[in-house]
TrEMBL record:
Keywords: Signal. SUPFAM superfamilies: Glycoside hydrolase/deacetylase. The keyword Protein transport does not apply. It comes from Actinocatenispora thailandica. GO terms for molecular function: hydrolase activity, acting on carbon-nitrogen (but not peptide) bonds. This is NodB homology domain-containing protein. It is found in: Secreted. Its main location: secreted.
Amino acid sequence: MAEHTGPATLPVLMYHSVSTVPAGPLAELAVSQRRLREQLAALVTAGYRLVGLSDALDLVSGGFTDPVVAVTFDDGYADFLDALPILRAVGAGATLYPVVGQLGGEPDWLGEQAGLFGRLLDWPELDEVAAAGIEIGCHGLTHRPLDVLPRGQVDEELRAARERLTERYGRRLRSFCYPHGYQDTAVRAAVARHGYDNACVVGRRLYTVGADRFAVPRLMPAPDQSGAQVVDLVATGGPVWSARLRTMAQPGWRLVRRQVFRASGRMLT
C-alpha cells in the first residue's frame, strides 16, 4: 500500500439554513447570506480549496497536498438556492443533504419551529441544485433518528430515499448524513450495505484522514463568526472539550431515546 502523503486532517463544515432568524435555540442553524459569503471567501483567500465531501475525501486520501475544506448543507431548505450564487462566486463546491420524503414540505422534525427556516426544496429546485454541480447526498427519508429504529425500518428509510434519488438523477449516490447526527455500529453498517461510501455526523472536530469514512465529524461555524474566525476554526478544530463531552454523553442519551421510542413511539432528539 502506498504511503499516505496528503494532509493528516480534513475540516468539514456543516451549514443548514441560509437565512436570518430571531435569537433562539435553533438560531445556530441559520447563517445569513452576507456571513456565508464572508466565511467562505476568507477560506479561499487563506488558500483552502472548497469542495463537497466525497470530492474532499478523494483528494486527501489520494495524496493531494493543498489545503482542502469540505462544505456541507443539511436538510435541503429552499433558501439553499440563495447559497448557489455565493458558492459560484467564491469557486466553492458543496454537498447538499436533502430529506427525500419531505421535499417541498416543511421540516416537521422541528416541531413547533417547523416554519422558522421556511419550506424545503421541491424536486424541480433540487434538479437546479444538481445541475449546478452540487453533490446531492442523502439525509434519509423522514429525518427520523436511525439509531433507535428497528433494523427493518432503518433499511426501508435508506432504501426508499436512495431509490428516489438514483431514479431521478441516474448516478451513484456516495454520501449520507445521519438525521440529527445519531448513529451506531449497526446504522453505519446499514449505510455501507446500501451502497454509500461515506457518511457524516456532527462531531464538532476535524476528521482524521484514514479514519472511519462512515463517521466523518464536522465543524459548525456560528452565524456570528467572522471569516477570520472560521479560518481559525478549520485550522484548529475548535474546543476539544466540547467534542469530547458530546461523545461521552451519546451512549446514555441513545439508551434514553430508545427506551422512550419503544414505550411510546415518540422520537426524542
